[in-house]
Amino acid sequence: MGRADKVSIALLSDEDIPACFHVLSKSFGHDAPFVDIYFPDHDTSSGQEQGSKRLMVWKQTSENSIFLKAVTQTSQGDQEHIIGLAIWTYMKEAPPAELDKVENVEEVWPNEDDRKFMVRLWRDYVIPRTQAIKDSDGKGVYVLELLAVHPDYQRLGAGTALVKWGTKAADAQGLKAVVEGTPVARRLYELCGIHAEIEEMRFDVGEEFIGRRKPKLIFMTREPKFEQDCG
Q: Do 68 and 50 touch, CB atoms closer than 8 A?
């Protein structure tokens, strides 16, 4: 596989959604419990079709979300190749604690236990960002809702560029940037000036789900700066 040496960031189009969801699935594999339950069967054709549909709806209905892609070009320079994606959202109001306010829960999680587990995870997942919004004195925060880079194209700077795009936008608006980060991505975020505020987010899913994998997420934040400090 050829390794392109130039990475650029652009807004992704509706047509890019399936390729971007494929990158998302490859990026996380089955190492991220939250991604596994939030995007059921994301590495199957049916799961990718459903996941792509959900991203499309999100993109077309959220005025405050910016969908970005990281691309390289082929050696001939005539065809771009999507290697990463990020979704940044300007969030001024707290997200709903009830998942059915933002998702068709019966359709996405037809299994009742899966649905109940995801509903409980979501309830706790939104607590830190909700508090950050409350603490913003009405300004809101800039949330990195999703970051994924294809494993075959990591260490080319795509992740850094996608994060840097958002922290620069947050700085321009004087907003705090926040992310629920995985331990694997922690170093990248720290290099971009985003640091742990909650070392391990708490998920109280009840005794009936004691045997299920719970997400290991770090709530990380970055105060706005006048100069970008992500190299």
A: no
Region label for 77, one of left (φ > 0), alpha (ψ between -120 and 50) or beta (otherwise): left
Which pLDDT band, with edges at 50, 70 and 90, does 198 fall under?
very high
pLDDT at 190 over 90: yes
| 183 alpha carbon, distance to own chain's centre | 14
Residue 68 lies in a domain: yes
Domain limits for position 39: 8-222
Cβ neighbours, 10 Å, residue 57: 12
Cα dihedral: 30, 36, 39, 42 (round 10): 30
Of 145, 181, 143, give the one whose Cα is nearest residue 58.
145
Q: What is the CATH number of the domain that holds 103?
A: 3.40.630.30
What's the whole-model pTM score? Answer: 0.93
Residue 169 lies in a domain: yes
pLDDT tens for 99-111 read 999 999 999 999 9
Residue 2 covered by a domain: no
d(CA 195, CA 218): 9
Q: What residues are paired with 82 via a beta bridge?
A: 71
Long-range contacts of 204-211 (CB under 8 A, 24+ apart): 204/120, 204/124, 205/117, 205/120, 205/121, 205/124, 206/120, 209/113, 209/116, 209/117, 209/120
Instruction: Name the domain count of the chain.
Output: 1
In angstroms, what CA-CA distances link 202 with 168, 189, 209?
A: 29, 20, 14
On whether residue 30 sits in a domain, the answer given is: yes
Closest by CA to 157, choosing from 1, 7, 28, is 7
